Amino acid sequence: MQANSRKVSSNQSHPHPRLTEVVRRHLTTTFRKPAAPHNLAAFSRLMERLDAAPLPLVLDSFCGTGHSTATLAQRHPGHLVVGIDKSSERLGKHPASSADNCMLLQADCEDIWQLLLQEGLTVDYHYLLYPNPWPKARHLQRRIHGHASFAWLLRLGGHIELRSNWQVYVEEFGLSTQLAGYRGRVARVPEGPGLTLFEQKYRNSGHELWAFTTNVCRDEVGIIG
Ligand SMILES: C[S@@+](CC[C@H](N)C(=O)[O-])C[C@H]1O[C@@H](n2cnc3c(N)ncnc32)[C@H](O)[C@@H]1O
């Protein structure tokens, strides 16, 4: 595993000055977007699986190779653990897993979140491990919490855990959930073997790793303050 990954370099050293304005706008307006055909097909596979064997859901959004999906399936034996990533190349590097409570979807996370909500489904745990940081300040709206689909993510509810090697990203995500009324906790990721390949690479390169965790009660997503 390589140990020469560069730390995130950004023209932002603090939460973005427009964070509150952007998140508030997304939380107070209704966002709808037609799901792309390949995402509808991936979602149908998920529905077939749930119809055959209904289980509560764990999402591993932006799962990359899905190494974390396999580990999380062992951690949550009474759940269906669903890894979602748009890259077939990354998903193709998934380790052979014996866990039968795990599945991978090649899809855009945002469309799958929206389709789950349209079906009236929610999740018990939602992992967001090392999403692309989009470190340039002008790319705020490409970050998970800066995108309109952030409202969908919150409405899916559950115990949310986001990890990143860029502390500002984790703090921004935490501030954004607080705007919706949910306090959480920012802390260092505990030492140990990497849950994902990116986590292991960053650890080997000596990066600080940060996590934000919160519990979102889905009926109460709104704005405080
Ligand atoms: C930095 S990698 C992290 C992968 C994995 N979680 C890990 O830690 O090893 C970010 C991943 O997000 C995926 N991705 C980016 N935007 C996406 C989207 N809108 N929907 C699904 N996957 C996406 C990329 O294909 C990539 O695999």
Your description of this structure?
By secondary structure, the chain is α/β, with parallel strands linked by helices. It has a single domain, classed as Rossmann fold. The protein is 34% helix and 17% strand. It has eight helices and seven strands. The chain has helices at 19-28, 37-52, 67-75, 88-91, 109-118, 150-156, 167-179, 197-204, and strands at residues 57-61, 80-85, 102-106, 125-129, 158-164, 185-188, 210-216. The protein has a seven-stranded mixed beta sheet, with helices on both faces. The longest helix has 16 residues, at 37-52. The radius of gyration is 17 Å and the shape is globular. The mean pLDDT is 95. The structure holds S-adenosylmethionine. S-adenosylmethionine (SAM) binds next to strand 2, helix 5 and helix 8.
Beta fraction: 15-25%
Backbone structural class: alpha/beta
Instruction: List low-pLDDT spans.
Output: none
Q: What is the CATH third-level topology name? A: Rossmann fold
- Whole-number tally of structural domains: 1
Write the layout of secondary structure elements.
Elements: H1 19-28, H2 37-52, E1 57-61, H3 67-75, E2 80-85, H4 88-91, E3 102-106, H5 109-118, E4 125-129, H6 150-156, E5 158-164, H7 167-179, E6 185-188, H8 197-204, E7 210-216
Short description:
The protein has 225 residues and is of the alpha/beta class. Helices cover 34% and strands 17% of the residues. A 7-stranded mixed β-sheet has the order 3-2-1-4-5-7-6, sandwiched between helices.
